[in-house]
Amino acid sequence: MPIKYKIGNSILKLIAGDITRQDTEAIVNAANKQLSPGGGVSGAIHRAAGPKLWEECKTLGGCNTGEAKLTRGYNLKAKYVIHTVGPVYSSSADDPVHLRDCYKNSLLLASRKNIKSISFPSISTGVFGYPVKEASIIALKTITDFLKEHPEIELVKMVLFSEGDYNIYKSSLEKILKD
Ligand code: AR6
Known about the structure:
The chain is α/β, with parallel strands linked by helices. It has a single domain, classed as Leucine Aminopeptidase, subunit E, domain 1 (3-Layer(aba) Sandwich), CATH 3.40.220.10. It is 40% helix and 21% strand. A hairpin with a 7-residue loop joins strand 4 and strand 5 (80-84). Residues 18-20, 30-32, 38-42, 44, 86, 121-128, 159, 161, 165 line the site of ligand AR6.
């Protein structure tokens, strides 16, 4: 059951679904530093976009943890893919900083490129092992703080791949909006 919140003048939606099928202008990829197709959400995005996505990624010189890079979306409904590299969870103080940077730098890049709608997956919570509850608080706090200052981003969708993750994000968002 998707839910919709108004944050400033923008909309934040939480949905359970497949990010490759979203029709926002951009979708975000939880990539690796080489920007190679890999598995998880990244593998799914590369499969749906087609081989030209990997061809373009090869020209970008990789991506550091917390940074974000833009490509076209090729066969996706989304016109653009924003590739960001989440932290490999290590319980260090850098983990939340890097995870926050992923969301913030992706949103800043969207704003600079005049992209008004964007979908995020739950970055780092698959292969990279970040606990979902902790990651959800960081993701949603970063997105809501950004939207309050950046009304030019009209819509952010957080696309969760399981009902379990969706429920965790939903209760984290309710908590953040109450505080
Ligand atoms: N739509 C939405 N979310 C998805 C989809 C999808 N189609 N497929 C998986 N997820 P992960 P990470 C969820 O492992 O932890 C790759 O191999 C998944 O259930 O894709 O940042 C890269 O190449 C989980 O909740 O990303 C990197 O090496 C979330 O997406 C590494 O994995 C993130 O899981 C990145 O690891």
